[in-house]
Design brief:
Structural class: mainly alpha
Order of helices and strands: HH
Mean pLDDT: 86
Number of domains: 1
Helix content: over 70%
Strand content: under 5%
């Protein structure tokens, strides 16, 4: 199995760090939204995510 070369330029590293930071911010926002909505367990959260995905696909 051949591995792709990873761009290690400062620009590429900066871009990856920015993307990771955005994902962290999104994760924290989703966690807070879940708590605010009264979702306290994984099953409730997954149910809400599946409902949202179905609505966004259909609508």
């Amino acid at each position: 199995m051949e591995h792709e070369e990873i761009d290690m330029s400062s620009e590429a590293i900066t871009l990856r760090i920015e993307k990771m930071s955005q994902l962290r911010d999104l994760s924290l926002a989703l966690k807070k939204a879940g708590k605010d909505a009264g979702l306290h367990n994984k099953d409730e959260c997954m149910s809400l995510i599946e409902k949202y995905q179905a609505e966004s696909t259909n609508g």
